[in-house]
Amino acid sequence: MKRVKKAGFTLIEMLVVIGVFAVLAIIATQSVMLSVRGTRKAEATGKLRGNLEYALGVMERRLRMATGFDCSGNPDQVDFNDELDGAVNYRCDITGNDDNIYYQGFSGGLLNTDEIDLTACTITCDVPINPREVTVTISAQEQNVSGAESARIDLSTNITLRNF
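== Type II secretion system protein GspI C-terminal domain-containing protein ==
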């Protein structure tokens, strides 16, 4: 009598194939998740950097052309005279939930506090009264984001004053 060979796979072969596909699926999923996490972090860092650079840019333009500086009071504040608004100031406030960089005469602050959390801010002058240079340093992090996707940025700028 001849043996009839049955076509098909054994249970062991099927389990090996399923195991190999499961390992490949896990590796592919992890790669996609790492890519998505990296994209989110880059996005958060870009938004945060853009927001901080905007604030520093506004401050830099106004301070560069201002006159009558005074940094002798609060280390987080600079008072100056502006051609448009007269006597004004920039003030860093990192207390409470509404931390921001405030500009006297402007409702609200320079930063979008819905997206960022200001962690440190200093405004210093090389000479407290009638300075030649002002240094602004800002540290902030993405608000309501934690873990590997969170972003933290530290920016600093030296502003050379033109009207002195």
